[in-house]
Design a protein that fits this description.
It is built from no helices and eight strands. It is mostly beta strands. Strands 1, 2, 3, 4, 5, 6, 7 and 8 form an eight-stranded antiparallel sheet that branches.
Length: about 80
């Protein structure tokens, strides 16, 4: 499971396995933020127990985020989020 926390200057993704935080030994990916006609992409970096993207993002109700994440050497998975 992935949980997304979006702020104007960062996007953080927490990864869990059946409700328990997952130990991340390696992780890569990117996020794409769709706000109306605007699109912003940023790479995700492993920071402690979470993945984080730094940048300038438009956040607010209705904004969509696509996260492509590869964790612990496993194939990449995509997750879509809609901000409330």
């Amino acid at each position: 499971d992935m949980e997304l926390v979006a702020k104007p200057d960062s996007i953080v993704i927490y990864v869990s396995d059946h409700g328990k935080p997952m130990k991340l030994t390696s992780a890569t990916g990117k996020v794409t933020v769709f706000a109306g006609n605007d699109k912003a992409e940023a790479p995700l970096a492993l920071v402690g127990d979470k993945l984080e993207a730094k940048g300038s993002f438009k956040v607010g109700a209705g904004v969509k985020v696509l996260a492509e994440v590869s964790v612990n050497g496993k194939p990449a998975v995509a997750a879509r989020f809609t901000l409330k």
